[in-house]
Sequence to fold (209 residues):
Amino acid sequence: MAACFLAVSATAALAQEDARIAGEYRAVDSFEMFQGLLLRPDGTFAYALSVGALDQRSSGTWTRHGDSFELVTTPKPVPPRFVQGDASEDADAPFVQITWPNGRGIAGIDVVLGCRGREPVGGYTQEDGWSPPSGDCAYPEWIELVEPIHETRSARIAITEPGKGLRFILEPNSMGVIDLTGARGTVTGDRLVLYFNGHTEDFVRIAPQ
Fold:
């Protein structure tokens, strides 16, 4: 009977400690951005960041470990990626064209073009593609692509069919979802500190549970 009572008491104490941590938190320095973390009493969480053109989100579970807690994002996000398509033989085709899977062109993709015998040439796409200025890169050897908002980068891709228009598809997959697995946090009063990838983020509770 005593053992049962002690077990119930311990369970209640753990539940109280979880309830102390659970709540809605906002970033302390959020004048020009929104950054929030919701730790629900059922052990799930939701995270959101919005600043400029960047929107990020994450959701999953949180587990308390003594005086700290740890996040696990579920399901595990699949990073976006550039996939090379068939080259175009159209004489009017741009040097490189980037589209979404539905075929819609993407503006704002940074392009770095490696050229034989000279420094690389850079630029960025419009919806109808990008071509280097005439005479700037007579012998292109490789290309690199970067989607700058979410920092999606291609590998350095060798150009094996010079004279043809390059085609790439940006597969979004889980674009905008950040994997917070392994992030740890501490709560002291109404202050929460989150540690992730060498960075520290400070939050304050806005909705105590």
About this structure: Helices lie at 2-21. The chain has two domains: 2-77+177-208, 81-171. The longest strand covers residues 54-65.
